[in-house]
Amino acid sequence: QVQLVESGGGLVQAGGSLRLSCAASGSISTINAMGWYRQAPGKQRELVASITIGGTTNYADSVKGRFTISRDNAKNEVFLQMNSLKPEDTAVYYCNALILLLYSSTVRRYWGQGTQVTVSS
After folding, report:
1. CB contact set of 109 (below 8 Å; sequence gap of 6+)
2. HEC states along the chain?
3. Cα within 13 Å of Cα(54), Cβ side
4. CA 53 to CA 37: how far, in whole Å?
5. pLDDT digits over 3-38, tens only?
6. 78, 89, 103, 104 - which has most CB atoms within 10 Å?
7. How many CA atoms lie within 13 A of 74 on its CB side?
8. Contact at 8 Å (CB) between 110 and 96?
């Protein structure tokens, strides 16, 4: 019923930039919050950044000042601008959204398939 499709990952040198995009589609009434998580090999998935429908943002301490999350509510899209990338930012990045479906009263969490970000030193 709902798909989250990410794009924009890749290989970049330390200090470089990447921009991730995620588009949600399907029987969507409202997207309450959207965010990005990441998971490095051997580590737990962690929150990178989130943004509410009203535009309130939250960032992991490790990315504050380097990453910026934004969204386009009209297009059900969320973006992550990543600057000053470090090798420790290497991970699979997952888009996440809390979505109220059409004709439903339940908000559910949906995940994208993930996109690899690799930062070389």
Report:
1. 96, 97, 98, 99
2. CEEEEEECCEEEECCCCEEEEEEEEECEEEEEEEEEEEECCCCCCEEEEEEECCCCEEECHHHCCCEEEEEECCCCEEEEEECCCCHHHCEEEEEEEEEEECCCCCEEEEECCCEEEEEEC
3. 1
4. 18
5. 999 999 999 999 999 999 999 999 999 999 999 999
6. 78
7. 0
8. yes
What residues pair up with 69 in beta bridges, in sequence order? 80
What's the confidence (pLDDT) of residue 120?
A: 97
Number of residues that this document lists for the chain: 121
Residue with tokens 């490095």: 40
C-beta separation of 79 from 73 below 8 A: no
Reported as a pLDDT band with limits 50, 70 and 90, residue 1 is: confident
Both tokens of 38, joined, read 């990441």
